[in-house]
């Protein structure tokens, strides 16, 4: 015989048969939510969600105020560094029996007919940063200082300053200038870096990376000459950074 179960009214009140006793525990531990709710309001307004902080994307530093020699300054001065402006650091073509310190590039006779400018800028960015890391390797620093110094040099504003130095010193050949013009047309999506530095600075930095990638595939000796002219060196005791002439 099926036992009679208690029923609930529409208001949530427990209906009990007059001849049946319900334990007190059952009345206090009902699983039905009897809490009174507010009536539904279709016009209810909700508090606005907090807005995310807006990033400051305005250029923080103009290229004209960036000094290449200050960017590449290291803690240990060269003891015999009395070289005049334009004197290059001596390039050691052999080290531990190896002719070059860079990884060997693939054999490509005409890179511009095989790769687009974005591909050369891609590899050029890596080679450029490798020069920066080698430059600050001596004297030894902690990891935070390594990262801070290298990051300051590989920023597009710093790369633009490097490019301006090469152009102002008339150090590039007509073919290399043509590669620069080709590299300025590198297409890329809108990035945070481009918004921060501006399209013009970003494009000029990309053109320098394209030139570095192009020379890495075609003429490593010329690439080493350009990077040494900018001030990238491998030692700390016998190599100095060429100073820039005061514009004033």
Overall description:
The chain has 248 residues and is mainly alpha-helical. The protein has helices spanning 24-28, 68-71, 111-114, 117-135, 143-154, 156-168, 174-183, 192-197, 199-218, 220-230, and strands at 7-8, 14-15. It has a domain at 110-228: Ribonuclease iii, N-terminal Endonuclease Domain, Chain A, CATH 1.10.1520.10. Strand 1 and strand 2 form a beta hairpin. The model is unreliable at 55-59, 77-88 and 236-248 (pLDDT under 50). It has ten helices and two strands, in the order E-E-H-H-H-H-H-H-H-H-H-H. The chain is elongated, with a radius of gyration of 34 Å. A two-stranded antiparallel sheet has the order 1-2. 42% of the residues lie in helices and 2% in strands. Keywords: Endonuclease, Hydrolase, Nuclease. Residues 119-219 form the RNase III domain. GO terms for molecular function: ribonuclease III activity. Residues 26-60 are annotated as: Disordered.
Quick take:
GO terms for molecular function: ribonuclease III activity. With 248 residues, the protein is mainly alpha-helical.
